[in-house]
């Protein structure tokens, strides 16, 4: 199948599965809301205003009791482009027990773990107003005075309830109440106008093990689109290679974006002949990847840009920043994807249930493959085709079921 982009086999899950409320996003297996990314103030002040805000959603500040959890929150902090290059202090959900006069986690368990055993918790927290914080830049923790207002803190609300972890189910998920506009957040991918308020921040797509981009099919001007991305700690799409350009074009087509969509290239405010990406000041010149139409960008024709999705070349043009309303994609961080991780041959073992997998040569595959998924008897199975772009009378998707390989879906024309 030449054009198959992504297939994902998912064992059907029950309605008990963890889903994130508005303003939260799934990161590292838990729902995260960034209340403050790099704000100056005292830990005491942040505790007093952050805990009520988190608690009303059933969330807490980070509770870290081992190295694995510490690494997870280091990774979460590292995924925010606004924290790149900054010395981050992550505020932890520790409190002083006035009876024991020792620090404890807000779940009532004693504070014993610290990264590298840096923190000595054997002190009177009533007398000594110190609080441990996580310091990802040094892969360590440190003690800070809780009433000192000169530090910049990062504050996350976290929903991580083990009782809501998704489990395989042999029953169909229960239907959502009629008045529930947002429904199951993990299943909404192209929201209606009614559900757009539920859309923000919840549907960043994980690709090649990176939580990286999000598609918005509602048309906005370039400036409005950039503000939308920035409000969710991202920026309009940066494209670093021909492979990425092809991937994002295919993604646009799969979302029925068949005309144009905004991308993050824009004119520098300092030099009309210099174009940069909205996630930084890297110029689009020299060895940097560039897919502008020949002679573009044209001075005076617009200070922003879009991709022309109507043909496979997916060329770029410049446009007015305020007038042209188009769909768009947001992207987090500036990593260049390593497409060498994509397999060069068909798989020799069955992919695991719940895991994404990629055909050889993705994002422009040209090798037909057969994929087998083995599931225990009496299990419901959901097959999700995330993206499928086909050539008429050439490509097809065929699904066979059971030991007899009975065809359960028609072969597309």
TrEMBL record:
What keyword terms does UniProt attach to this protein?
Disulfide bond, Signal
Q: What's the superkingdom here?
A: Eukaryota
Disordered: annotated span: 165-185
Gene3D superfamilies attached to this UniProt entry: Mannose-Binding Protein A, subunit A
Q: Domain C-type lectin, which positions?
A: 213-323
Q: Which residues form the signal peptide?
A: 1-15
Q: Where is the composition biased (Basic and acidic residues)?
A: 173-183
Kindly give the Pfam families that the UniProt entry links to this protein: Lectin_C
SUPFAM superfamilies given in the database record: C-type lectin-like, Spermadhesin, CUB domain
Q: What is this protein called?
A: C-type lectin domain-containing protein
